[in-house]
Write a structure and sequence with these properties.
363 residues; alpha/beta; TIM Barrel; Chorismate Mutase Domain, subunit A; 2 domains; 8-stranded parallel beta barrel; binds phosphoenolpyruvate; binds manganese (II) ion
């Protein structure tokens, strides 16, 4: 897959992010002028906070719940800009939101997870953004579809938006989970691999769904080299009109930020750099051996496939497969490898063995 996006490095549009991660904080929803301004003034006191978020148009799962104050809250955000050093951001889901937010001087727009899933909506936003120079952050879609996320980023980029970032807010879980939204870190890592220049802001509030999970999720995000955080912060979370369980006070925001350890992607410590190089060299050699061994194993699989074909024997013998898994899991334990890990690897290897033998049978 070849994806070429024309984006500006984040430190060009947020000079402070050269040294600090992009920190976006503020309530899930703007509720009143007083709540918006008081929360902003407390958040501003933390030097790390750069952007104030507040949702005006709220995509709610069920009707009849608080759906946001809408355009009525735009002047409140304007006051935040006038009375603090913070930039302001809000979610847009329709062309008219884009127009109203830009007219009111909102600095950054984000596209919510429920909008990213719909290419028609994303295209409507892209068309409304044409001709504007404003940063846009695109949340992942609620379903774990990386292509949909990338597609939305492409649509916005093709509209001429070059100050572009992604927000990782997790995916609707399909089983009981401690997270409100399953982080599926693998998908965020894959986005980074495919689009290495795309900054990713982690939203530990919507991933965790509870105040307690914000810090560990944020720490993990930084350990995976993400560029920023969006943390829902409310002057009085207990009475918040949306997402009350996951919002923190500005004081707790500070405690969370103080606890997070910022690790860098590289280091100036020569001893560390040298030893890393040596260990990575050893890993490369082990990987070469692994590839050679896998090749040998599959050559044996092919040999067995030929003889099964000649003798009219089925490819799969469940008993043998069960024995392989049990034996390899037990041996893995002696090498300090978890049962899950060994089982996953041998399931994978076995799948490929079946595929190769199927090909032999059908030739
Ligand atoms: C939000 O940021 O408040 C929000 C609605 O988030 P999401 O789009 O991630 O559900
Ligand atoms: Mn929210």
């Amino acid at each position: 897959m070849n994806i070429e996006l024309n984006i500006e490095p984040m430190e060009q549009w947020f000079p402070k992010t050269k040294d600090l991660p992009l920190l976006i904080a503020g309530p899930c929803s703007a509720e009143s002028e007083e709540q918006v301004l008081e929360t902003a003034k407390l958040i501003e006191k933390d030097h790390r906070a750069m952007v104030y978020r507040a949702g005006l148009w709220k995509p709610r799962t069920r009707p009849g719940t608080f759906e946001g104050v809408g355009a009525k809250g735009l002047p409140w955000l304007k006051k935040v800009k006038e009375q603090t050093r913070l930039l302001v951001a809000t979610e847009v889901a329709k062309a008219e939101h884009v127009q109203q937010a830009i007219d009111a001087g909102v600095d950054i727009l984000w596209i919510g997870a429920r909008t990213t899933v719909n290419p028609f909506s994303v295209q409507e936003l892209a068309d409304a953004l044409k001709g504007h120079d404003i940063p846009v952050l695109v949340k992942n879609p609620i379903n774990p579809d990386l292509q949909l996320w990338i597609g939305a980023l492409e649509r916005i980029n093709q509209a001429g938006i070059t100050k572009l970032g992604a927000i990782h807010r997790g995916f609707s879980p399909n089983s009981e989970s401690k997270y409100r939204n399953d982080p599926k870190w693998k998908l965020a890592i894959e986005l980074k691999r495919i689009l290495p220049d795309m900054p990713i802001v982690c939203d530990p509030s919507h991933i965790g769904g509870s105040r307690e999970l914000i810090e560990p999720v944020a720490q993990k995000a930084f350990d995976l080299q993400m560029e920023g955080l969006m943390i829902e912060t409310h002057i009085n979370p207990e009475v918040a009109l949306s997402d009350a369980k996951q919002q923190v006070t500005p004081a707790r925001l500070k405690t969370i930020l103080d606890a997070i350890i910022l690790r860098r992607a590289d280091s100036a410590n020569n001893e560390f750099v040298e030893s890393l190089k040596e260990l990575r060299g050893k890993i490369d050699n082990v990987d070469d051996e692994l590839i050679t061994l896998l090749g040998k194993r599959m050559a044996l699989v092919d040999q067995i496939g030929e003889s099964k074909k000649e003798n009219n024997v089925t490819i799969l013998q469940v008993g043998r497969y069960e024995n392989i898994l049990n034996d390899r899991v037990a041996k893995g334990e002696d090498e300090n490898l978890s049962a899950d890990f060994v089982k996953d690897i041998f399931e994978f290897i076995h799948q490929n063995s079946i595929k190769r033998q199927e090909k032999i049978m059908n030739d």
